[in-house]
Amino acid sequence: MNTRVAKEFDYPALRKIYLESRRKNFYWADTEAMTLDDFDKHTEGEYIILAEEDNRILGFASLYLPDNFIHNLFVHPDFFGMSVGGLLLHASIEKMNKPIRLKCISENHAAIKFYEHKGWKKIVEEGNPSEKYWVMEYK
């Protein structure tokens, strides 16, 4: 398994991963409103790293480099628990300057546990009552 910078020809696969992963795991959200086009809207202007093995894209991270911020980190549901997320997180940390921040939906307990296991700390919980999230930091 390796990481590399995403190219335009990777986007169809990345769109599918983004949609399928959110539909499967974001039980608190309106999954019917999610579309393939969301990927393009939600990663505009971001640096995208992908993880692949045997020419199959397993997941991606999108980074907003000016703020040292991980905006998205998604793994295809078929590859959960196979170290893809950890590899993408490591590649993201290597690309940015510390401290690095991200936001994680408070309802996404599995993701919060993952980040904490990797050394991230919860800083503050923000958002409105129906959409709370944790700002997390890695130093």
TrEMBL record:
GO molecular function: acyltransferase activity, transferring groups other than amino-acyl groups
Record key words, sorted: Acyltransferase, Transferase
Pfam families noted in UniProt: Acetyltransf_1 (PF00583)
InterPro entries assigned: Acyl_CoA_acyltransferase, Bact_Acetyltransf, GNAT_dom
Coiled coil: none
Ranges of residues in domain N-acetyltransferase: 1-139
Protein name as annotated: GNAT family N-acetyltransferase
